[in-house]
Amino acid sequence: xxxxxxxxxTRTLRFLAALLASLALCAPARATSYSADFTDLWxxxxxxxxxxxxxxxxxxxxxxxxxxxxxxxxxSARWYVGSAVEPTNxxxxxxxxxxxxxxxTTGPWFGGPFDPGTVGRSEVGSVTxxxxxxxxxxxxxxxxxxPVVKAIERQYFRVxxxxxxxxxxxxxxxxxxxAAADNGPLDMLGTTTVxxxxxxxxxxxxxxxxxxxxxxxxxxGTYAQKGRMASVPSGNFSCIVGGFQANAGVxxxxxxxxxxxxxxxxxxxxxxxxxxxxxxxxxxxxxx
Length: 288
Hints:
It is a single chain. Strand 13 (224-226) and strand 14 (229-241) form a beta hairpin. The longest helix has 19 residues, at 8-26. By secondary structure, the protein is mainly β. The protein folds into two domains: 8-32 and 159-284, no CATH class; 48-154. The two termini are 29 Å apart. The protein contains one helix and 17 strands. The strands form two sheets. It has an eight-stranded antiparallel β-barrel. The radius of gyration is 23 Å and the shape is elongated.
């Protein structure tokens, strides 16, 4: 995010750009080590097109546990479970695909004593879920020989706020830089303050440059919620180092996940010096 030059200030500016990108790398953009965390309540896309139908997705590592609430030919509620839905091999380009068997379970009446001897499970079909982004995908499943294919998206019903004070920032890789020597890993860590409304979010990162100068970078963009995840589809940033304008550019964030202990997101950006791809996030201050 900063151009590196032979002068101390230009070296600082370059470092700042690298720092911003590296902070994104330091703060995990993914809630699992395998992929974006697809844990959420999902339903048919476009939103509200099939109210009353849904699928819960719980992800642990690379395995999904799916529960469907759908209806049978007699319009009565049906419950199906995919308890071991795992990554397929090979994976499709620019997507993540999981597949596994579907089961129907039976058991004792909920109002009586639990009898483990009455619990049963029968395999009734299979399911494949292909996620083309952190918030959308395609669901294909077959039950009793009946195939179903749906576009799906995360179900949204409440804005999740990332507002607060954090220790963190941006980590990234710089590429396509004007100066080839600037290509490579960047990291910027400091104090991050987030303010948010239903439609806009601001990230202010304050830190000390390698030369000891105070530096501040402000990222301001639109905020869009989709299920428990959010995104910043368009934004602008600018940085000041030692009282001087250092750089300015545009950015986006995806898979923005705010929780009680902090937030993390995938970051892409570009300024007058380089293109940046990395991760942005932070750990919430203890008093926050």
